[in-house]
Structure formats: structure tokens, C-alpha cells
Backbone:
């Protein structure tokens, strides 16, 4: 039995069906990817919230150690920090670092000619990051050289208003 030739209309309809099928399949695949990314994002946000609560507890133990040093409390703090490390969390912000607005929140500026401009002089509260994302910026005191503050004063103008 000879096969009948496919008319141009049938061929055009078949191509249109094939295109719709491929488009629908691509849409479905894109939806699956977006849904997976959304789930991953939400899981990460939940994990970050839990880690931030844990970080608050670490801060409390750290402050308690500052008020009254204790070997027992120090070992508890070390265990807590080890847990954070296992979760991929690292502490950011130490004295001597160059000020980075992505990692640090300046709470004060002090003039100092002893260190370069925009150097972290003191850390009021440690910051933390996990991977490339900052969970909490470090609150720091930043240096400003005496020269840069003198340059900001305009000649002939008194700073006392």
C-alpha cells in the first residue's frame, strides 16, 4: 500500500504542533529550575535565621567572658564557634583590617596618624559570613588620618559654627 503524500497544510500543522510541544517542554523545564532555586533560597534563609540566633548566643557568651573570665565558659564558647565553623560560618572584622563597607558597619570614626586611613581600629561587635554572603556586618571603629580631616576643612572657613 503506497503511502499518501502529506499535504502542505498537514505538514504545517505538524510543525506548529512540534513547536508548541518544544516550547511547552522548555517552559516546564524552566519552571522546574525556578522552583528548585526558590526552594534552595528559602532553605538558605531559614538556615541563616537559625545561624543568626546562634550568633546572638555566641555574642552573649563572649560578653560574659569579657566581664568574668572562666575556663568553663571559654570552652563553651569554643564549642559554639566550632559548630559555626562546621556550618561554614566565619567571623569577620578584626582590628587592623582595611574598612570594607560590605563586611563592616562603621559606628565611629577616630583620627589617627599611626595607621592608614580607613583602617579598623576596634571591633565593637564581630561580623559573620557564610560563603559569599554576609550574615551580619561587623560593627567597627574606623581610623581617619589627621591629614584627610584637614583637607575637608575649607580655607578661610571656621569649623566652629
Residues:
Amino acid at each position: 500500500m503506497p503511502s499518501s503524500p502529506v499535504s502542505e497544510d498537514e505538514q504545517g500543522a505538524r510543525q506548529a504542533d512540534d513547536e508548541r510541544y518544544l516550547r511547552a517542554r522548555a517552559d516546564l523545564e524552566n519552571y522546574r529550575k525556578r522552583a528548585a532555586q526558590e526552594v534552595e533560597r528559602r532553605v538558605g534563609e531559614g538556615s541563616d535565621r537559625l545561624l543568626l540566633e546562634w550568633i546572638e548566643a555566641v555574642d552573649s557568651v563572649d560578653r560574659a567572658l569579657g566581664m568574668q573570665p572562666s575556663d568553663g565558659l571559654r570552652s563553651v564558647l569554643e564549642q559554639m564557634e566550632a559548630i559555626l565553623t562546621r556550618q561554614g560560618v566565619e567571623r569577620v572584622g578584626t582590628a587592623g583590617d582595611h574598612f570594607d563597607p560590605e563586611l563592616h558597619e562603621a559606628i565611629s570614626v577616630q583620627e589617627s596618624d599611626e595607621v592608614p586611613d580607613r583602617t579598623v581600629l576596634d571591633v565593637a561587635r564581630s561580623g559573620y559570613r557564610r560563603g559569599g554572603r554576609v550574615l551580619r556586618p561587623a560593627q567597627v571603629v574606623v581610623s581617619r588620618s589627621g591629614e584627610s580631616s584637614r583637607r575637608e576643612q575649607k580655607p578661610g572657613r571656621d569649623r566652629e559654627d
